[in-house]
């Protein structure tokens, strides 16, 4: 039984709506600035919106400039009439568009992939098998802040700062030399309005002066794994554990500026990085989570259901994590039960990713249930045993699990997925918890209304900019101001400081660029797998390139009901 059903009637249930939608945006986005007037095939567009009733112009292809020169009335009134007509037509489309919500439990494809071809499933642990509550970020922030005070002699006044949920988002870049946090798009341009020093935004003029524009040159961007090294001054924060680190950097900078304390940004970055690292390396976080696991781990039932489904269908499974065995064992006991190791054919802890995928020198080492390291040479990776470190090349030799029959899931696009897809041909799945929140926002009436009108208004600006007289330009400037206001509103609706994880105003973010390159599929949580059978093929949506006409309806992620044996839902 297929897990998704899409009756033909669903596609055609509002054929007229799709026709109107397509015709309207074709009208706003025709080739080379040429407007096609065809009132026979598009009766819903009134003639007054396109040409004046009082002028005699042959029906056919007219340029915007042509339309104006043959118009005998007031040009300003004509521009506003086009504006008002377009706005009304856009509002008429809202009910149609609003029906096509995106399902938050969808698995999205960057690259075509069939689960029928997957024989082996691999997993990271943190934020892949184990989902954590927001309490964990507060814990990490507080411990790292106290380490700065006690061990690095930072001011006691820093205790005034608590963790600020939703201040930052994943994927931001941090200029180590300037102590600036910012969002950068796929083309290395800073999204102005998203540059923060401490807890305060930096004025756009100041940003442009510092960077001699808004473009960040390749040579100062972070390295392949998002790190600041070898002369790179930008660090990209890509994993979910980095949220408290970014917040702590911002809070300490804020304290220094408020108290007029001169500080070296490079030292601040290194000290905060070390303090955050100590929270993990010293086992402080692990012990805290183990002591109150119900407080910190969420959605255990859904994760267990996914693993059970794969096991019942005869799939092999393995776990490769950087976390220590005791921590993983305590968490998996809570998520699955004491027999959790029976589900996995191979378990590797403290793997030291991404080095695990590149460094051939580290051999595997067996670990006892009590954490004792054994010295015997590893000739086989046995089910039920625990292994530490090692490297992927040895893993491939011992298991023979190569190529596209392997699908590995992780939340860190660089450390978990990049090398696997680029060097080894494994299929990759990214776990992006932020997806669920952002999709719910995109499904709201406010967002649909704003984005539809924003696109229509952008189309108007594109075509009407040819009118260079002062009266027309005053009208167009008002439209530009309105567009800018809507762009800011669509940013703030996701996050008041930095906007969406996936977009700047219109471009994909740098995060999205890497996600689309390194992940074959991506989803909000592993629980999304419960909605698909293991024969399912994921197809990427064919979104039009800039030179292509949008001649097909986009139904790939519409709110199509899932047909599944499971009634569980993913994390909110």
UniProtKB/TrEMBL annotation:
Cofactor note: Binds 1 Mg(2+) ion per subunit.
Keywords, alphabetical: Hydrolase, Magnesium, Metal-binding
MF terms in GO: 5'-nucleotidase activity; metal ion binding
Binding site for GMP: 126
Entry cofactors: Mg(2+)
Residues annotated to bind Mg(2+): 124, 411
SUPFAM superfamilies to which the protein is assigned, alphabetical: HAD-like
Stored CDD domains: HAD_cN-II
Family that this chain belongs to: Belongs to the 5'(3')-deoxyribonucleotidase family.
Protein name as it appears in the record: 5'-nucleotidase domain-containing protein 3-like
Lineage: Eukaryota, Metazoa, Chordata, Craniata, Vertebrata
Gene: LOC107665729
């Amino acid at each position: 039984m297929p897990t998704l059903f899409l009756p033909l009637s669903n596609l055609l249930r509002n054929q007229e709506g799709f026709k109107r939608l397509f015709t309207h945006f074709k009208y706003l986005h025709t080739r080379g600035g040429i407007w096609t007037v065809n009132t026979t095939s598009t009766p819903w567009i009134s003639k007054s919106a396109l040409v004046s009733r009082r002028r005699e112009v042959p029906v056919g292809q007219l340029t915007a400039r042509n339309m104006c020169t043959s118009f005998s009335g007031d040009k300003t009134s004509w521009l506003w009439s086009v504006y008002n007509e377009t706005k009304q037509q856009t509002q008429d489309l809202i009910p149609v568009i609003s029906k096509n919500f995106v399902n938050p439990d969808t698995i999205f494809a960057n690259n075509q992939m069939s689960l029928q071809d997957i024989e082996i499933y691999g997993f990271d642990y943190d934020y892949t098998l184990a989902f954590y509550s927001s309490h964990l970020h507060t814990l990490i922030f507080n411990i790292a802040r106290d380490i700065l005070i006690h061990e690095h002699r930072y001011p006691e006044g820093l205790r005034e700062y608590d963790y600020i949920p939703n201040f930052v988002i994943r994927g931001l870049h941090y200029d180590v030399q300037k102590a600036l946090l910012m969002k950068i798009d796929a083309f290395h341009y800073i999204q102005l309005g998203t540059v923060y020093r401490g807890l305060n935004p930096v004025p756009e003029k100041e940003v442009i002066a510092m960077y001699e524009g808004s473009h960040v040159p390749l040579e100062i961007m972070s390295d392949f794994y998002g790190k600041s090294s070898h002369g790179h001054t930008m660090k990209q924060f890509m994993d979910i554990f980095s949220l408290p680190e970014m917040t702590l950097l911002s809070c300490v900078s804020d304290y220094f500026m408020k108290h007029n304390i001169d500080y070296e940004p490079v030292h601040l970055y290194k000290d905060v990085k070390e303090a955050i690292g100590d929270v993990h390396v010293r086992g402080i976080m692990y012990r805290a989570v183990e002591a109150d696991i119900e407080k910190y781990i969420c959605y255990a039932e859904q994760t267990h259901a996914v693993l059970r489904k794969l096991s019942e269908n005869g799939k092999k499974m393995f776990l490769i994590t950087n976390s220590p065995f005791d921590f993983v064992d305590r968490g998996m006991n809570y998520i699955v039960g004491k027999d959790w190791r029976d589900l996995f054919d191979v378990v590797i802890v403290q793997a030291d990713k991404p080095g695990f995928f590149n460094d051939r020198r580290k051999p595997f080492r067996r670990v006892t249930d009590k954490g004792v390291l054994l010295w015997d040479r590893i000739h086989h990776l046995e089910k039920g045993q625990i292994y530490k470190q090692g490297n992927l090349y040895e893993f491939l030799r011992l298991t023979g699990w190569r190529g596209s029959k392997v699908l590995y899931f992780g939340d860190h696009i660089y450390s978990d997925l990049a090398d696997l897809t680029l060097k080894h041909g494994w299929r990759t799945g990214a776990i992006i918890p932020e997806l669920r929140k952002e999709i719910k926002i995109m499904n709201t009436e406010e967002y649909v209304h704003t984005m539809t009108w924003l696109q229509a208004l952008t189309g108007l600006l594109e075509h009407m900019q040819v009118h260079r007289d002062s009266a027309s330009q005053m009208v167009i400037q008002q439209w530009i101001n309105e567009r800018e206001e809507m762009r800011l509103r669509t940013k703030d609706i996701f996050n008041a400081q930095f906007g969406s994880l996936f977009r700047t105003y219109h471009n994909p973010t740098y995060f999205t660029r890497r996600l689309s390159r390194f992940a074959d599929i991506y989803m909000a949580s592993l629980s999304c797998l419960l909605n698909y059978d293991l024969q399912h093929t994921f197809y990427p949506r064919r979104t039009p390139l800039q030179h292509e006409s949008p001649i097909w309806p986009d139904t790939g992620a519409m709110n199509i009901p899932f047909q599944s044996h499971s009634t569980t839902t993913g994390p909110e």
